[in-house]
Amino acid sequence: MDFSLIETMRWEPGDGLLRVDQHLRRLSRSADALGFRQPPADTLKQLQAATAASETPLRVRLVMTYRGKIEITTTPFTPLPADTLWRIRVARTTLPSDDPTYRHKTSRRELYEAARAEFTPEEADEVLLLNERGEVCEGTITNVFVEQPDGSLLTPALSSGLLPGILRADLIREGRAKSQVLRLADLDNRRFFVGNSLRGLIPAELVAQAARLEVAVEAPRPAARAAKMARAGR
User: Fold this and answer.
1) How far is CA 169 from CA 18, 71, 118, in A?
2) What does each C-alpha distance from 59 to 64, 197, 198 come to in angstroms?
């Protein structure tokens, strides 16, 4: 297998690893779906050992190979300032809605990297990807959430082709968000957020830009075995 599974978590003094159970369940589901070995039985203990000596917040990254070998790295984590507002632009690169491997967090990042490379950090804090039908999918590292008049959130449907993020799943389970197919027009003049399990919800604004091309980068197709295993696991 030419790619690995990834989980990115946040560790806080006093709270430990945030949403760790959800992250490990997703890792296990992805392993089943893509034909990987299951994570080692002591994965949680390894995560706890990797963070035990810290006294400040950490970004914790777990990478697991096809054979179930895991590697854990930690780096200092600094939360965003309370008044943060991310500028969002829309990529010409699109995500294929019919490729189920993009519903798992893996090291296959070519499309996300291509989308991010369309804009400099000065031009955009995050870049939004659509699918081949023009439906909103996700950011390169975040899910998307559009606020409704009653304060609830809408987030793109899995049928559009996107990673079901841990924060997204939590908000849906808590009744604070629901999923439906969204288009760029649904973001016009609406308060919206991008977010992930590491950083939480981040207020965002869509930066006006020239009309985008519907398809600029063709999605790389997964290896035949990976595609077969992914479809079998759904």
Assistant:
1) 14, 25, 29
2) 17, 11, 7
Burial zone of 181 (CB within 10 Å; 0-12 exposed, 13-18 middle, 19+ buried): middle
pLDDT tens-place string over residues 193-223: 999 999 999 999 999 875 554 444 445 444 4
- Percent of the chain surpassing pLDDT 90: 87
128 contacts 143 by C-beta, under 8 angstroms = no
Select the CATH number that applies to the domain covering 86-206 from these four: 3.40.1160.10, 3.30.420.10, 3.20.10.10, 3.90.800.10: 3.20.10.10
Chain center to CA of 211: 26
Rg (CA), the chain: 18
* Residue count of the chain: 234
Delimit the domains of the chain by residue range: 5-76, 86-206
Q: Where are the alpha helices (DSSP H) in 66-216?
A: 110-116, 166-173
| Predicted confidence (pLDDT) per residue in 110-144, tens digit | 999 999 999 999 999 999 999 999 999 999 999 99
Alpha carbon of residue 4 to chain centroid: 15
Distance CA 64, CA 83 (A): 36
Report whether 33 contacts 26 (CB < 8 A).
no
